[in-house]
Design brief:
mainly alpha, about 90 residues, 2 strands, single chain
Length: about 90
């Protein structure tokens, strides 16, 4: 029998979640989650960069508007750093 940490209900040894409150009975592996989460941040940043790059190229091609990519990269990187630092708390 496994006792729930949240409500104290006794659950069977095979149970993964509490039958009363639904809490997870066994802790998950934290390092895997963090590694996966950090990878998702970089994928989000890279995807955003590719979309912005595509829009800049469209503006240059059809409207003859030239934009610098450097400041946009700095803004995206700063947003990713802020998001990552706030997410860890």
């Amino acid at each position: 029998m496994i006792r729930c940490r949240e409500c104290g209900t006794e659950n069977s040894a095979e149970a993964r979640y509490c039958t009363k409150c639904g809490a997870l009975l066994r802790p998950t592996k934290e390092p895997y989650f963090r590694r996966r989460h950090i990878g998702n941040i970089w994928l989000l940043l890279f995807g955003s960069l590719m979309i912005i790059y595509g829009f800049i190229k469209l503006l240059e091609t059809y409207y003859h508007i030239t934009l610098e990519l450097g400041p946009i990269l700095a803004i995206l990187f700063g947003v990713a750093l802020i998001y990552g630092s706030l997410r860890r708390r």
